[in-house]
Specification:
Layout: H1 2-16, H2 21-24, E1 27-30, E2 41-45, H3 58-67, E3 77-81, H4 90-100, E4 106-109, H5 112-124, E5 136-140, H6 149-159, E6 165-170, E7 173-179
Parallel strand pairs: 1-5, 2-3, 3-4, 5-6
Antiparallel strand pairs: 6-7
Length: about 180
């Protein structure tokens, strides 16, 4: 019985000695999901207005622009592009912009990914980087919100001049990305 008591005491002592090194580290974690702009997203695909899937007829397109219900984009974020391989005249995008400008919160040329990139950049552009000077930074990698790789690139570009280290992942399991003075 004495031996069992000694083993129990030793196990309890070891349990008390477990130290959360992640919590004690000087890592600063950035979760890009915190920079997500909430709101409805829309994609206007001009492909749907192409005659025979090949070309845009001005008269038909102007009719579409005149009769389309633009109110459904109220306060939304809208990407306007063409997913078909067709040459779309620039004036077509300009016509759509004239109708979206009074209702949409943001309009971008491109696809839904371009829209997300733009929305994230809007938020990141206002980021105060002084608090990251000389710090070890972990940019969180996984989450419920899909974040375009271009946003990770932009944040890394922004942080590189000020950070001591930049890592990707979770504080308990990171991939080194940048270390001041160590470019390989």
């Amino acid at each position: 019985m004495n031996r069992n008591m000694q083993m129990l005491e030793a196990m309890e002592k070891k349990t008390e000695e477990i130290i959360n090194r992640v919590a004690q580290s000087q890592l600063v974690s950035i979760d890009l999901a915190d920079y997500y702009t909430k709101g409805e997203r829309h994609f206007i695909d001009i492909k749907d207005q192409l005659h025979m899937g090949l070309l845009l007829r001005e008269k038909d397109f102007r009719e579409f622009v005149a009769t389309h219900d633009w109110s459904k984009y109220q306060d939304g974020f809208v990407a306007v592009g063409c997913s078909a391989e067709a040459i779309v005249p620039v004036w077509a995008y300009m016509l759509i912009a004239t109708r979206l400008q009074p209702v949409a919160a943001k309009i971008v040329f491109g696809n839904p990914g371009d829209l997300e990139h733009s929305l994230f950049l809007d938020k990141l552009s206002g980021m105060d980087l002084s608090g990251f000077a000389g710090k070890k930074i972990v940019i969180k990698g996984c989450g419920e919100i899909a974040i375009p790789p271009s946003v990770f690139m932009e944040l890394t570009r922004m942080l590189t001049p000020v950070a001591e280290k930049i890592m990707y992942g979770e504080p308990c399991s990171t991939v080194p990305v940048y270390s001041k003075g160590k470019m390989k």
